[in-house]
Structures are given as structure tokens and as C-alpha cells.
Write a structure and sequence with these properties.
Length: 164
């Protein structure tokens, strides 16, 4: 299954997904709660966020996907605040214990799957420094999730965004 997380308007999302199969779409919901940093998803309800809303099972959704596609406005070399909020709710995907990987300390994986990540940033004035920052962020995120960063795109507008 492919998991798509995006901050695009609903009309554009519908066009992108026409005829596409095996895709679960996660869009930004202004009524969804943000991570409160309680870590109950690690301690009280392992693997599940205690906030029971549309993002409460993000860890399990990541565990069920083989490819993660993130479509986000580029914000200072990172994700838009709404996409970042969704990704923050994905912390149950990881185990609270640590391991050493490539000489660095990282969380152990809770699930045994391998995710390939593709990211499409859009924005009308993405600078060279923002692209460099975004690449560094994505490499770190991929390592933390035990995933492979497959592709990163920078587009000048959301009109060029597509899903294959």
C-alpha cells in the first residue's frame, strides 16, 4: 500500500488520485489534535496515539505501507506546519528503546517493514539553502524511520504535483 500525506486543497487531491489504486490518503485536518508530547503512545497504549482522531493510528498506517509519498509546501527547508503535525503524530511507529545505527543513537523499530519515501516540495521561491536544508532533514527522517529516501522533488507551484 502507498500512503500519501499532503497539504493540497481537496479539489486538487481528487484530481491527483483519479484512477489510482492501493493508496491511502492522509490530508491535513484542521480539527485534528497535535502531538502533546505525552509519550503515552510508547508507554500507555504502545503503537497507538491516545488522541483518538483521524491521526490516532499513524504509526500503524506507516507500518502497513511500502511507500510513503509526502506532498508539502516547503517552509524554510522543511514541511508545512500541517504536514509536520501529521508526521509528529507518527511517533508510535517507533519503539521507545534506542539502538546505535551508523554511529548514532536512534529509536528501535517497532515494526518490521521497509518504507521507501518520496517527497515533493512545492513553493514559488524555494532557495538553494532551503533545498539543502530539506535534503538534510529528509535524510535524517529516513534514517530515523529505518526507511529509504527514494526521491525528492522541488516544484515552483503545486500545479506540477503528480502521483504515479
Amino acid at each position: 500500500m502507498r500512503l500519501v500525506i499532503c497539504d493540497l486543497p481537496q479539489e486538487q487531491v481528487k484530481k491527483l488520485l483519479e484512477g489510482k489504486k492501493d493508496i491511502e490518503l492522509i490530508t491535513c485536518d484542521e480539527h485534528a489534535g497535535t502531538c502533546i508530547g505525552c509519550f503515552d503512545c510508547w508507554l500507555l497504549t504502545p503503537g497507538r496515539c491516545v488522541i483518538r482522531d483521524s491521526y490516532g493510528d499513524m504509526g500503524a498506517k506507516l507500518a502497513a505501507c511500502s511507500q510513503l509519498l509526502i506532498i508539502s509546501r516547503c517552509s524554510y527547508g522543511g514541511f508545512s506546519p500541517s504536514v509536520k503535525a501529521i508526521l509528529d503524530r507518527s511517533i508510535p511507529y517507533l519503539h521507545p528503546d534506542f539502538r546505535i545505527k551508523e554511529g548514532e543513537m536512534h529509536h528501535k523499530m517497532r515494526y518490521k517493514n521497509s518504507i521507501k519515501i518520496q517527497v515533493c516540495f512545492y513553493g514559488d521561491a524555494i532557495t538553494k539553502q532551503e533545498k539543502k536544508t530539506a535534503h538534510g532533514l529528509l535524510l535524517a527522517n529516513s534514517l530515523n524511520l529505518g526507511a529509504e529516501l527514494e526521491k525528492v522533488e522541488f516544484l515552483s507551484s503545486m500545479e506540477g504535483v503528480g502521483i504515479q
